[in-house]
Amino acid sequence: MTPMKILSVFIALTALAISGRAPAQDIQVQPVKINTTGNSELSPVIEDSVLYFISNRRTNLLVTYLNQEDELLYRVFTAPLKKDSTLGKTTLFAPPDQPRYNAGPLTFSANGSLMIATHNKSNKTTTRKTRERSNPLSLYVAEKKGNGWHRYEPLQLDIPHGSSIAQPSLSKDGRFLFFVSDMKTGEGETDIFVSEKKGGEWSIPKNIGSHINTSGRELFPFIHSSGKLYFTSDGHNEPGGFNIYYIDWQDINSRPVALPGPINSNSNDFSCFISEDEKWGYFASDRNGDDDIFRFSLPQMACSETKEVIEDNYCFTFFENGPFKSDTLPYIYRWDFGDGQHVRGLEVDHCFPGPGDYHINLNVVDTLLNEELFSVASYNLNLERTSQIWFETPDTIQTYQLIHLNAEPRNLADLNSEPVYWWNFGDGETRVGRNIDYQYKTPGNYQIICSTILADNRKICFYKNITVIDSPED
Fold this sequence. Notes:
Layout: H1 3-10, E1 28-31, E2 41-47, E3 50-55, E4 75-80, E5 91-92, E6 103-108, E7 114-120, E8 137-145, E9 148-154, E10 165-170, E11 176-181, E12 191-198, E13 201-202, E14 206-207, E15 218-223, E16 228-233, E17 243-248, E18 257-258, E19 269-274, E20 280-285, E21 292-297, E22 306-308, E23 315-319, E24 331-336, E25 342-344, E26 347-351, E27 356-366, E28 371-383, E29 388-390, E30 396-398, E31 403-406, E32 408-410, E33 422-424, E34 430-432, E35 435-438, E36 444-453, E37 459-469
């Protein structure tokens, strides 16, 4: 695999498609001003109010470095993040000790003193004789001293010879390092791996599992301080090419949740950075023709009226005060409920299988002849689901117990064709998506609220109460 092919897998996602997803109301997505025409900008990450990103734009009019496909190499650039959320002037990020050629995605420690960056392993220029040789990607560690970065050294990981590793993301506590590799031990063409720091050394990389990695390509991991892993994939059967997902990476039973439109689209959407409160962030997309960086912000759902989720009950008691009450008469009542069930008696209990139109017949039956004598009553019964956003939760759970939430619209005539669901867990945490996995970390009584916006822009909100108790392990 040539360096350009490696870059095409790890960095340059250039397939062009036309966006066809209906935009979700109130989710704002805008391209940032640092994008350039005809070049790629991607892999955004913010450190100390500065946006770092990579681009293959030209940096020098006199000296030009090209890859084996005669395309400009990628470099890291920075732009200050202003208080009004706009970006300042773009500057080339070029520490003196940085490896010479391709520079890819990077990540920072929580205190900002450590950086792990992607670079080609070899610093040598190619000639016609060496043009077809592979130059895999690798990870380098640098330390911040004063205002500069120094001592770029290869990250010590046990990686098979010839494999590439790239796109690092370091957990907030510095314990876990996520990255992408084309190691043959993976599920697909590229997979996400994780290494744990033990005793000052990184453990043997571990594939994070088939609930995340597919036979396709998984790229650009971003581990959030909440514990959720955001990543890019083209193997989870969503519309478009690459889409952005998040998941509880430590739970093999959890399911990836795709970010809603217009963040994800029918184009390639990838490489995200998510803010601490998960209410805004950056991602890259080729929806405008080039790989560009976009900023998104999620609305704050304020519900003026919140309704409790109701458990629909289709069980009823039927009774009739008729003349045949004597035990000496051979006549009884027989109920036909229109769902294939028949019950005998003056007063009976019956549960219908679900919503629908049922025709009820009450007949008098001669038990000696087993014949119906005449009909006492006949009427239609229409059973409907309650108009609501339905979701199930246990009444009581333990701290760190995973709960699976699925928003199910029931009898909502004015629902958007692609509704977006907002979740508020009552502990300061919010999420967006139809299927959500969540853990409470602190015991207490909480109200889970699920909201959406109807086609006429009305907000509807439904809640369920839940009690969280200490786990026996706490």
